[in-house]
Amino acid sequence: MQSAVDLARSGLPAGTGRRVRRRAAPWLVIAAIFVSLLALLPLAFIIWIAVQTGWETVSALVFRPRVGELLVNTALLVLLTVPIAIVLSVTLAWLTERSDLPGARLWAWLCVAPLAIPAFVHSYAWITMVPRLHGLWAGVLVSVIAYFPFLYLPVSAALRRLDPALEDAAAALGLGPWRVFWRVVLPQLRLAICGGSLLVGLHLLAEYGLYVFIRFDTFTTAIVDQFQSTFNGPAANMLAGVLVSCCFVLLGLEVLVRGEERYARVGSGAARYQQRASLGRTTIPSLLLLVATTLMALGVPFVTIGGWLAAGGADVWRFDEIGLALGQTLFLALAGALLATVAAMPMAWISIRAPGPLQRLLEGCNYIVGSLPGVVIALALVTITVRVALPLYQTLFTILVAYALMFLPRALVSLRASIAQAPVELERAASSLGRPPLQALWSTTIRLSAPGAAAGMALVALGIMNELTATQMLAPNGTRTLAMAFWSYSGEIDYASAAPYAFIMVAMSLPLTWLLYVQSKRMAGR
User: Nearest CA to 95 among 295, 273, 276?
Assistant: First the structure.
């Protein structure tokens, strides 16, 4: 009798144990297909340009010594930076989450805080402090400092969620602490390490400003230089094609390394917090590691910015220019975040309410654009508008579309999580009361998912505020964001005038970074 009552309450037909799949509204499917096709536009355009250019020209542009040099530089950068970042991040995560480290919570926040500093500001700070810092190893050093939090966050979150019973069982079988870590803990961190490594690798391929400061050539710097110097469409697009191929290689490697092992157990068991390990004599070396990391990742940028602000005095605070740059940055960030969130809404709704093969295909298209560097998306939109829709070249519409495509996955992930927590029964009840589908969706699911949408908009806005290459290539004439103003002054070696813009970008990013840190703790139940 009780089971029948439960079935009646859940709205499921008696005799079935599965939820009835809901069919998506046609207009939502059409909207999701349109956004997905738009997301594939940069990739399709590069392929189309290659076909139009012809194999002889393509081979001449791709198979040349300069491309080989860029490929070697990029490969060495990724192969050196990612393993160092993995070792550093896993070590710091274990110290802050699994040991009796003094002040562990403070150190955990300090390990995340470097995300608030744009990568090109890290490079600006280091090149100011060490003017001769150039080349591959300089790129590895600054890249690890700037990007290791992308690995630290998922690894530390995974460590919080691990089942301590597995480690207890391994210890009971006679394994020492190190062997327990290598054979039990580390394999369970594979997903977090793979995901974070992929994120770091994609950022390395897409970064521009960081490597310009230290005079290290990568595909992204070469593409921007080619575009700015000669506006050579075929050459720049072929470099972009090689860069996209590198991105897909990273995606494939991540899938292979990740594997298909199961990382969850059946049943909740007797979950409890892991007892923190005693550091003993290694307490001082552990604290020294954290102090050194914090000084390099936070101390150098803040000291450098503060030094230049003090050297420039009140004259560098040109409030008319700063106010204009701040206003334009906020407008583009809010408008781009709103457009990306609206564009992600149909796909997010379908992925939760009507999953299926079509949904998986469309969602994959949306995530592909997230793996493309911003310079590739910008270059595609530049060439398309110049050749096909010249009135749209360097307009507000084009730059907002670029932002929406670049940061669409951020909005999609946040919306999916918030829509999943909105009961579908409320949406059905609104429809049964006679409200049109769009009005029923607006009055129930969209309103209930507003907090998640706001968090997604904040993440998108954070990315837009620190974005440089696409803004330089697509922004309308007269646009001067905080990042563009910083880059303009630093390019003139006027580091004192660039310092206020760096300070404002960091000050605006810190609250959003704190929100990201708090959210990661909540997801782990802390």
Answer: 276
